[in-house]
Amino acid sequence: MTYLVDDKCIKCRYTDCVSVCPVDCFYIGENSIAINPDECIDCGVCEPECPAGAIRADTDFDPEDKEKWLDINTRMSELWPNITEKIDQLPDADKFNPKLNPEVGDKTNDLSEEPDKG
């Protein structure tokens, strides 16, 4: 088992989860973050920290979505730099947070593969 970041993180990029991770398995992109599934120790401390509900155990995904998000998290964690400390969320994060705005739909197509430039 591993934990994965899904589309709910895109355009929000809260990093509350990063500060509690004991193994520093988070990677930061331009508008999202990813978990390296090979580094994740499945402790689950990150899941409740995400204000957007974007982190879930891979066992909580249906099989098709699991493969898609496992692939995305694996690829992005190879492209993006590691992040180990909390930083500010993206400026419009609350606007795109599906927990605050239930009308926000799937944001998968908005995922940028560019690394964070910060």
* CATH class categorisation: Alpha Beta
Helix content: 10-25%
What is the general shape?
Answer: globular
Number of strands: 4
Would you tell me the overall average pLDDT? 97
**H-E string:** EHEEEHH
**Biggest sheet, open or closed, and with what strands and sense?**
2 strands, antiparallel
Low-confidence stretches: none
What is the CATH third-level topology name? Alpha-Beta Plaits
Q: Which structural class do the helices and strands define?
A: alpha+beta
The number of domains? 1
Distance from N terminus to C terminus (CA atoms, Å) equals 31 Å
Fraction in beta strands: 5-15%
Total count of helical runs of at least 4 residues: 3
Q: Evaluate the radius of gyration.
A: 13 Å
CATH architecture: 2-Layer Sandwich
The main sheet orders its strands as 1-4
